[in-house]
């Protein structure tokens, strides 16, 4: 049985949602509940598999409503196995919420060249 890229993405997304929900209910509360909206709307754009693509408007709306630095500080353990933090930074920047250079998002450090202040 072979899986298409789409099937693998769906499985990875389901796996990611399971990890996030089961391991860090507190982080969602600490970050204003934004984590659920980010998971629902941005998962296809931040998965490790597949190319980097521009996020949807729904994803950008979720990013704009989120406290991105808080989410970065409270990423669940193991999330980096299925989520590309480089893509997370790209999506945040595309949507107008970029973290300052040197900021840690999980184990990923934001490069200085991709940074500017977050507009809250």
From TrEMBL:
It comes from the Eukaryota. Residues 12-105 form the Bifunctional inhibitor/plant lipid transfer protein/seed storage helical domain. Pfam families: LTP_2. Residues 1-28 form the signal peptide. InterPro entries: Bifun_inhib/LTP/seed_sf, Bifunc_inhib/LTP/seed_store, NsLTP-like. Gene3D superfamilies: Plant lipid-transfer and hydrophobic proteins. The keyword Ribonucleoprotein does not apply. The keyword Signal applies. Keywords: Signal. CDD domains: nsLTP_like. PANTHER family: BIFUNCTIONAL INHIBITOR/LIPID-TRANSFER PROTEIN/SEED STORAGE 2S ALBUMIN SUPERFAMILY PROTEIN, OS01G0800600 PROTEIN. This is Bifunctional inhibitor/plant lipid transfer protein/seed storage helical domain-containing protein. It comes from Aquilegia coerulea.
